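Batch job 17 of 40 flagged for manual review because the log was empty.
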Amino acid sequence: MKKLINNVEYDLTAEDLQQIELDKIEVARVKAIDDAKAEKKASGKAKLIELGLTEEEVKETFGIWVI
């Protein structure tokens, strides 16, 4: 693999490749956290609706848009 710096191509070093892998792991970790938060939010919205709140009440009280 190569990297481009100031329009000059360089070969990636072992450190570059290691950092790329670490970055991929971090992106996956953050995505998993975001997905879990979204899932909890959707679950919470559904439970509020099941308790009898209207979509408008959920939105106004908790700032959660019901989809």
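Reviewer: the log was empty due to a logging misconfiguration, but the result itself is present. The CA atoms of residues 55 and 66 lie 6 Å apart. Unflagging and moving on to job 18.
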